[in-house]
Amino acid sequence: MTDLPHLASRLYGTPLLIARPKLDVILGVMARKLAGQPLAMPTPESAQPRPPALQIVDGIAIVPVLGTLVRRSAYLDAASGLMSYHAIQAMAEDAFADPQVRAVLLEVDSSGGEAGGVFDLALRLRALSKASGKPLWAIADEAALSAAYAIASAAEQLWLTRTAEAGSIGVVAVHVDQSGADAQAGLSYTLLHAGEHKIDGHPHAPLPASVAADIQADLDRLYDQFVELVAAHRRLDAQAVRATQARIYRGEAALQAGLADRIGTLDDALAALQQRLARRASADRSAPRLSHSCKEMTMHDDAPDALAAEVSVDANAAAAQAAAPDTAALAAQIEQRLRAELAELTEIAAQAKRLGVTVDPAQALTQGIKPDALRRTVLEQAAARDAAADIVAVAPASASPPSVADSPLVKAAKAYGGNQ
């Protein structure tokens, strides 16, 4: 027999992270049941057995996040369309601890559920992935809404099927005022209590404005936590997350909003994750390893110099490998350095122009001429030009040197000698 008071307590007067269409369906069913109308319950033959179990496919653990989500489901399992946060966490912990599992994929198809416990679960999933070094991915097939999106956001990559929905980042609470129905039924409830707020939100009277304000404040605090969780996990600005205003995005629209990363099927996501694992394994095989002696060696301040010499070449190579940036980072560093050199060469060319020396900065960069070397070249050319300008008189190129015999002094000397 279905535990109606238990189900009602999970729906009414408690914060929910669930998409409105799904909430409407649940409330409609519960309203009929609470009114005494019979509902078609699944027979043992047609009922689903137990909640979906953990699967492992080629070293990838598939953790299901399906149906309406609650903190604890007890015996209300898949036959009631419920799945608990505790069950999801238990499966994830088993998967990350399994040495045969190399990665975890969350298979999400849920419109959300209870607020209580969901943020702790999302943070726990991210922590498990980080501690184990195993990638955590997720795919929405066909819905990752509200609480389910909070869980999916913990993944390193979030995939969507082409028609899948994501988002609904918001909080809702429901209050049922059944005082009118009570009056029609001839019932009048008197709630005796101690403590002013003990019966806040009870269904047998309209909701007072002060109580509604308190509930709204609680929802606002939960909403802030939800926004901050998604912003941190998805590396989004919190204002951008808040600007979604709990909208639901389908397919490509979710990618444009930054709420998901790729479009594809479950098989596509599994294949991409396998490729990621293969690349990582290849990189691990090519990385140098520390020698046995290096792993066991401990350096102390008073250790002799000879002990330091025992560090193997493998250790040096491993340290260099660890310190080396990846290809993209290295390319960015090189480009930044070249831009800086070109800017300095261009400034030198401008200064050289004022000195009357022509310099091509692009050609200098291509030829590998450093700024200091180019600066010296410019100064040498300018100095050589100034030295040449210091010659103030030269013999005309076309003039013949004067003859000594034509000199008046020579002629006078000859005449004087002849008179002697």
TrEMBL record:
An example molecular function term from Gene Ontology annotations: serine-type peptidase activity
InterPro entries per the UniProt record, alphabetical: ClpP/crotonase-like_dom_sf (IPR029045), Peptidase_S49 (IPR002142), Protein_C (IPR033855)
Keyword annotations: Hydrolase, Protease, Serine protease
EC number: 3.4.21.-
SUPFAM superfamilies linked: ClpP/crotonase (SSF52096)
Entry-linked PANTHER family: PEPTIDASE S49 DOMAIN-CONTAINING PROTEIN, PROTEASE 4
Residue ranges crossing the lipid bilayer per the database entry: none
A biological process term (GO) from this entry: proteolysis
Lineage: Bacteria, Pseudomonadati, Pseudomonadota, Betaproteobacteria, Burkholderiales
Protein family according to the UniProt entry: Belongs to the peptidase S49 family.
Protein's UniProt name: Protein C
Residue ranges of domain Peptidase S49 in the record: 130-276
Organism whose genome encodes this protein: Tepidimonas ignava
